[in-house]
Design brief:
Blueprint: H1 2-5, H2 9-16, H3 19-36, H4 51-54, H5 65-68, H6 78-96, H7 126-146, H8 153-156, H9 165-179, E1 184-187, E2 190-193, H10 197-208, H11 216-238, H12 250-260, E3 263-265, E4 268-270, E5 291-292
Parallel strand pairs: 1-5
Antiparallel strand pairs: 1-2, 3-4
Helix pairs in contact: 3-6, 6-9, 7-9, 7-11, 7-12, 9-11
Length: about 290
């Protein structure tokens, strides 16, 4: 057990997870377990069409489906276990290695006290990661209902999804791989640069489908991840930080500062033991010895 969770056991391992990863994992475990134990009906958690939200089978608004469709990992089994493991590992890595920042402070330049006139912080924090997940959830659902129906059958092979847990997982995997492309990772014993990780998973999924059907859920998550990365990183770099394309809402920033006990000062984020403005050498780097997905 110590080899899996560390010397402190599962309780200490769980408490050591950063706040968003811990909350995400708890929610997925709870919803998946309740659905598998028939305490909740999975048909009350899915999202087949927009009408289910506005006026569901009960005849009333069922807005919870917008969230629960991302929290059901499937029937108990090996696939669900692997999916939960990958979700937790990749979310933990992304969150602890500093998320992409999509925010500027409401302060005049220099924005971070280091003669940096870019409206972007050099490193993100929990609020930015929460915003990234919200962006991904909205993007996945919008494209699922507005774009997916018009894709050719030769590509989709009739695949239709009503749960989007794996979509969101690969959304995070893709963004992390683009943000840290040179980090070495180990996929079932095969070492590679992180930049190739999403495509290695995609190839594995295609092989498991006997080379006949592309795993559209993986592709879908990666596509929305690319949209986010392009808006959050590529456009600001091309424009040299002169334009904020997407920004973490200040109310979300304030909420996470309150939860984490952070304060905003003129020199950046004032945090004890890490966060934006901290020493680059103190940020947690990826463990090269860990085996992703295995």
């Amino acid at each position: 057990m110590d080899n899996v969770f560390g010397a402190g056991g599962p309780d200490q391992w769980f408490r050591s997870l950063p706040i968003i990863t811990r909350t995400w994992l708890s929610s997925v475990l709870l919803i998946t377990a309740l659905a598998n134990l028939d305490v909740l009906k999975w048909s009350e958690l899915d999202l087949r069409q927009w009408q289910d939200v506005v006026r569901g089978p009960s005849g009333k608004m069922e807005a919870w489906r917008l969230i629960t469709c991302f929290l059901y990992a499937g029937k108990f089994g090996w696939n669900a276990l692997i999916g939960l493991h990958m979700m937790t590992q990749m979310s933990n890595r992304y969150e602890t290695m500093s998320p992409i920042c999509t925010r500027r402070m409401n302060l005049p330049p220099p924005y971070n006290g280091n003669n940096n006139t870019s409206p972007y912080y050099p490193r993100g924090e929990s609020a930015d990661y929460a915003f990234a997940l919200l962006f991904g959830m909205v993007g996945i659902l919008l494209s699922q209902f507005l774009l997916f129906p018009y894709l050719p059958y030769s590509l989709t092979q009739g695949q239709h999804y009503i749960f989007f847990h794996r979509h969101l997982t690969f959304y995070v995997v893709y963004i992390w791989s683009k943000h840290y492309p040179l980090h070495r990772v180990n996929l079932f014993g095969v070492a590679m640069a992180a930049a190739y990780l999403p495509y290695a998973y995609l190839l594995m999924g295609y092989a498991l489908n006997n080379g006949q059907v592309l795993p559209i859920d993986m592709l879908h998550g990666m596509f929305i991840g690319h949209v986010y990365y392009y808006l959050a990183c590529v456009v600001p770099e091309v424009l040299r930080g002169r334009l904020v394309v997407i920004a973490t809402p200040e109310i979300l920033v304030g909420l996470f500062h309150w939860i984490e006990g952070r304060g905003v000062g003129g020199g950046g984020i004032d945090v004890g033991g890490g966060g934006v403005g901290g020493d680059e050498d103190n940020q947690m780097l990826v463990n090269v010895d860990d085996v992703i997905g295995g």
